[in-house]
Design brief:
Mean pLDDT: 89
CATH class: Alpha Beta
Strand order of the largest sheet: 1-3-4-5-2
Number of strands: 5
Shape: elongated
Order of helices and strands: EHHHHEEEEH
Distance between the termini: 7 Å
Number of helices: 5
């Protein structure tokens, strides 16, 4: 299996490293409706324009708000190029917050920091990296904060086989 990067193995991550992930994604109405329906979320603020227009609480300004599970998935997805390509497993998600709502048409971006690293006997040839990620909208407002621990391949065990293409 070939990979596109060789700078995202366990050894490459150092505590305190900060990343501004290069990709952003504009949230569409379809994204919100699809995720809301697939997750069977019945909160009308996600899909009932009339009802949402009457909600004037805090940052909820009378518009349908994007379902939080989509925001979480999207922001973590924006980190994938750096953090998931050599990942073997995500073993924890923690301290997740959605401090500001996301609306149709918002563009989200992600930033991350390495909080910790540890070797593990449970995954030979890999180690655990602890990341904190925040998601921001196009105005710089924080719409997501969360942490995850990911099992990532060690270069010495995987690089040669990762560089091969095909079976």
């Amino acid at each position: 299996m070939g990979i596109t990067r060789t700078d995202n193995y366990y050894e490459d991550f150092q505590v305190g490293d900060k990343y501004i992930h290069s990709r952003g994604k504009t949230v569409t109405e379809m994204d919100n409706i699809l995720c809301t329906q697939l997750s069977m979320n019945t909160a009308e603020a996600h899909y009932n324009e009339d009802k949402a227009s009457k909600i004037q609480i805090g940052a909820f300004g009378g518009k349908r708000v994007v379902v939080g599970s989509y925001t979480i998935s999207l922001v973590f997805g924006l980190t994938s190029e750096q953090f998931s390509e050599n990942s073997l497993a995500e073993i924890s998600l923690d301290k997740m917050r959605l401090p500001y709502p996301v609306y149709h048409g918002d563009t989200l971006y992600a930033e991350s920091e390495v909080l910790g690293k540890e070797d593990t006997d449970l995954y030979p040839g890999a180690g655990i990296v602890h990341f904190k990620t925040i998601g921001k909208n196009q105005e710089g407002k924080v719409v997501f904060e969360g942490e995850k621990k990911t099992v990532i391949k060690k270069r010495e065990y995987y690089l040669e086989s990762d560089q091969k293409f095909g079976p």
